[in-house]
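Sharing a chain and its predicted structure for anyone who wants a worked example. Both blocks are below, sequence first, tokens second.
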Amino acid sequence: MTEPGLATDYFDGRSARPRRVRLQLRGGRLLIIDDTPTSASAGVIDQGTPLRSAALDEVRWPERTRHGARIAHLAGGGELHALASADWDAFVAGAGLREGFVVRSQQSWRAVLAVSVLLLVLVAAGWRWGVPLLADATLAVLPASVDAQIGEIALQQVEARWLAPSQLPAKQQADLRAAFDHAVRSGAGAKPAPYRLEFRAARIGPNAFALPGGTIVMTDELVQLVEGDEAAVVGVLAHEYGHVRGRHGMRQLVQATLLGAAGSLAFGDFSGLLAAAPALLGTLGYSRQLEREADGEAIALLRAAGRDPAAMAGFFERLARWRAERGETADESAFGIAFSSHPADAERIERFRAAARQ
């Protein structure tokens, strides 16, 4: 007597050598019959001796793949392997087992393509809106003392690599400090954000940058570039003060950390990013929006101090000539914090000239 069944290989969990068996379904159980096929007809073999049986709900059926052997794991140990994937799939379907939506979708290139496009959209939306919103929420609960601590560490690292004591005359430094302080007191309201102004000689050329906690660094080379023009210096410092008020440095650091954390979920450890976090403050450029916010602060403080915003337009033109003489672009600047090409210098020059006309 013969009964329909499926020829497959059985591993008992103790030996690496498979045994050729036949699978049958009887009364909701999977019957494993020790019997080598004697007929060439697919799926029909002689009645043999049952090795073991298992309830269908005790058998684990791994997800079907497009290629490779079909496998089933038996309770208590042991596996079934079948290379005849079409026969196996028909047998499983006959047992009343239905694949889930995810498994069926994985076998459809249309579904895979749709999910891939959706994933790209979600990643782009997270980059565009999710990370900034999460950074805002983080900054809202992050005390200002954290900014100050990170700012001090960053200043020490930057000084060790790029900066040296200022060579500007003490009186010139004092005059520039007084001019900027007057602009801050005139335009920042009753509660100005605390800041500390430092002058340094540097190998990074004309530059200025703001660190978390309120430290603003201006290089001697920048003062020399504008030939000591107080209005231009005040405008540059006011721009950096805008970064201080908006906590832009910490925002960029938090966003970089969030992105690093997200990357670690997909690609592995990101402890190296955390270790280098203070140094990142010296290399991360601000976004277009943050640069525009800082430029708006510069315009407001210059106006409040009775100075012409056009001084900043003149500064950018001088900076462009200085770069052109050295064959550099804005993107090649050593720091790229205060004066990146985002937004473009031409756009910023026009904005300051328009402010001057108003």
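Comments welcome. The chain has three domains: 2-99, 108-141, 143-357.
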